[in-house]
Amino acid sequence: MTDYAIAGRAIGPDHSPYIIAELSGNHNGDLNRALALVDAAADTGADAVKLQTYTADTITLDVDRPEFRINGGPWDGRTLHDLYQEASTPWDWHEALFARARVHGLQCFSSPFDPTAVDFLHGLGVPAYKIASFELVDTPLIEKAASKGLPLIMSTGIANYAEIERACAAARKGGADGFALLHCISAYPAAPETMRLQTIEALGAAFGVPIGLSDHTLGSAVSVAAIARGACIIEKHLTLRRSDGGPDAEFSLEPGEFKSLVDDCRMAHAALGPPQYDRKGVGGANAQFRRSLYVVRDVAAGAALTEDDVRSVRPGNGLAPHHLPEVLGRVTTRALSRGEPLAWSMVGP
Asked: Is 240 in contact with 260 (CB distance < 8 Å)?
């Protein structure tokens, strides 16, 4: 896997997972709420907070044709333009949000949705760009973002394998300083049984870059499971209170829940480790609870050992129990006392 970092923070299988708090439209049109979300993200221990940079007019058209109207899901019946008008983060908020993140030592970046957003964000000093799931097919946009020489994170969403390949080629062609891919099921919310987390390992094997998860399921169990499958990045929506509503509230975590997500994902990663079969702990306190061969009655010197003389018991300071057939019938080299751990020096050949 290639080396990859955002603002000096190394990201990959050997590093603690990189957790991104996605603000999206959960500011509900209020700058103070957006700033409070940045504060909350910092308090959870997340590594980064992410915005989305677009206007309704840069992402869609104000047209009421059937294909511009949403059918099903949390935004059923709304036009694209109406939804994005509500959910967009005003561009004149960005500087204040970036500054608030810097106060907390929190990385802040965004998803640009057109070339003007790429340039705007570059002017704010973003450390990376995120390419959203539905924009993965927009290879000119990817090349534009990559041309700034920064790392990219790209969500795969509903893209097929060939589209992912083209997106990766565009990132390389544009000159990105490395990129990561996020497995993603583009449903809002996504059902756990649809998540196909083995895709994380498949993407890693196919593309040799860090792989993560953009998680739209309810709760945090799927994100934790993704860490166990090798995810290096977790992106999850954050809201102050689901009861406050908003475009993405239904599938977002509240701050306390998000902190649990961060803690659990990092604990899951810490628990992985390499395979180990070296009986760690034997010889210390745990030796008391292992079985081994002990002398269970006094035995005279020169006597042949029988099953009445030696048994497998706790603790584990004597010969391993599998040696019992080998020692039975052997002659003792000295007198043995009840309660002694059996050793090879105590029996003849």
From this structure: no
Q: Tell me the whole-structure pTM to 2 decimals.
A: 0.88
**C-beta separation of 324 from 310 below 8 A:** yes
171 and 312 share one domain: no
Which residues on neighbouring strands pair with residue 313, listed in sequence order? 292
Question: Within 10 Å of residue 332's Cβ, how many Cβ atoms?
Answer: 20
The residues, ordered by sequence, that sit 6+ positions from 149 with a Cβ below 8 Å of its Cβ are: 175, 176, 177
Contact 299, 315 (CB under 8 A): no
**Within this chain, do residues 181 and 263 fall inside the same structural domain, yes or no?**
yes
Measured between alpha carbons, how far is residue 338 from residues 113, 319, 342 in Å?
Answer: 80, 15, 10
- Angle, alpha carbons 177-216-204 (nearest 5°): 40
Q: Find the domain containing 300 and state its range.
A: 285-346
Domain boundary among 272, 302, 334: 272
**34 dihedral zone (left: phi>0; alpha: psi -120 to 50; beta):** alpha
Whichever domain contains 337, its CATH number is 3.90.1210.10
**272-330 confidence digits (pLDDT tens):** 988 887 766 555 677 788 999 999 999 999 999 999 999 999 999 999 999 999 999 99
State which of 242, 272, 302 marks the end of a domain: 272
Q: What is the DSSP track for 100-140?
A: HHHHTT-EEEEEE-SHHHHHHHHHTT-S-EEE-GGGTT-HH
User: What pLDDT, in 10s, does the model give residues 62-108?
Assistant: 998 999 999 988 889 999 999 999 889 999 999 999 999 999 999 99
Contact 298, 335 (CB under 8 A): yes
The dihedral sign for the CA sequence 101, 104, 105, 107:
negative
Taking each helix axis as running N to C, give the angle between helix 94-103 and helix 31-44, from 0 to 180 degrees, rounded to the nearest 10. 30
